[in-house]
Input
Amino acid sequence: MRKTIDEINEKIRNGSARVVTAEEMPDIVAELGEEKALREVDVVTTGTFGAMCSSGAFFNFGHADPPIRMEKSWLNDVEAYAGLAAVDAYLGATQVSETQGTKYGGAHVLEDLVAGKSVELRGSSKGTDCYPRKTITTEITLEDINEAIMCNPRNAFQKYAAATNTGDRTLRTYMGTLLPLNGNVSYSGAGVLSPIMNDPKLEKIGSGVPVFLCGAEGMVIGQGTQSSPASQFGNLMTTGNLKEMSQDYLRAATFNGYGVSLYVGLGVPIPVTDIETVRNTAVRDEDIVTQIEDYGYSGRDKPAVREVTYAELKSGRVEINGEEIRTSSLSSFRKAREIASELASWVESGRMEMTLPTRKTDIARRAGPMKESRRSPVVKEIMKRNITCISETEEIKTAAQKLMKGETNHLPVINSEGKLVGIVTTYDISKAVVKLRTENTVSSIMSKKVVTTSPGEAVDIAAMKLEKHNISALPVIDSEGKLIGLLSALDLGKLFGKRWL
Amino acid sequence: MKLLVSFSKKKGSEPLIAKIVRDTGVLINVNRAYIESMSGEMLIEVPDSDSKTVCEKLISSGANVEKLEDYVFRDEDECIDCGACISICPQEVFYFDEDWHLQMNEEKCVLCGKCTEACPHGALSIYD
Output
């Protein structure tokens, strides 16, 4: 059996359509069976409410008199890209205020506008014969301007990798605060209610399909940027009228130590036309598998700590290496539910009818990495190889002599196998002299907690380690923990000459 | 019950809490202690039935005592029930109810302030 979109729309129009949320669907299918569920259910609604950094809006402010062609523009001191004709601009959600920093950004401007608040528009230009004006400052509200059209390059990821941190310091990321030594796990996404998770082949969700976007009736433009449906990381480019949006479903956020983001409420209705759709919308949290990735690794391809289902993540605790770790969601499941049921009421009441995508989606698409034509330098290219080190069993006096002789202020300490076990600085020696001590070996005074780098690590990451830990050198160790060099702030300085940084 | 005890520099050098535990036999749980150069402040937890005795002892030893009632405040207009705070809180103050509404076990709070930093929506503040 199949149902056509027209049949479903006819039912929506006469008020007899059965609309359920994607959370209710699995039980309905389990109870009725697929065939009966297909006959019974006409539309399944989805919903998600989470941080979607890749969001923003196009504005047209109308012309001033005398007119200006804005080359640069700001809304409440947040720069909006104005390289689009004369009085148009695109404000990105993550752009931060030039005066308030990460406390206020593009997302906050959008929320303020939606809340009906007045916002200061500033523009500047060099002035032309047709647009003589050079500056403008004016207070505007959403009502005062011609258009405010939300256009989000990348929303509603099918699912998202969860995050943990195996490192030894707290990380502040777009996945929230990650406590050291796997102190917590954070995740994002609505799981069972996730739009694309309920239509992974993007047969019902695509160009032209109507959606709930922050309380307004919006539309899917197509797959979003960086969409990767082949690896189950599909996403959507969406648009909707900012003037019709509600603060209930659009919220600015600041991730401490990271930056600004926008919480976007998005729901997509899925017309149930065939058995395949019934099967897809019967997906449960237990079936949705993602990875927990280690954000302690600063490179692009973060190692996976383990696989996990959304059911486990939502349970509040997951196990990592035999330990129970608490989880935090960054998206709101309560809001996702609210959106799915609000959207269901829109369809039931006939406010929104169903449309199939106006063009086919390429589900073989897979997002690739950036092509880097200039290789970024790695530690081994600039580290010092010929370094002075000391064995842990040597006397403190020997360490002092080595430090006096050498050019360095850092003396890595190795064991009999050549593995790094500590580091001694002139400060450690001075401390040893001041304090009365019974032991006289290097191992008794060395710092055992050493921040290290590896030969293949990007110099930028090593530089960040120096900065974060407020230190001036990093021992370089190979995969077996053997000492092979030292990277100091001085070595980094050499890069400036070559214009690397 | 939680009590916020503040004392002058001089008192800070005395084993104030230890003395009270010895004299009263009440088991006092110290949640937090901050010692500044001129004064100190301590957050302690005592059984409700013994709070009067402990308060009297503290006051007679020259400390100021305040009963703590508002620990952590949640602005419900700002909170969107995401749960970012849940795994950050060392005391497990926050949890979801069956409807995914964020709930708080306020009395567990030790005023560390980690949740206020972790909340993306600036919805949490602690007793100041």
In short: The helical segments of chain B are 9-12, 16-24, 51-60, 114-118. Chain B touches chain A at residues 80-88, 92, 95-96, 99-101, 114, 117-118, 120-122 (CB under 8 Å). The mean pLDDT of chain B is 88. The first helix of chain B runs from residue 9 to 12.
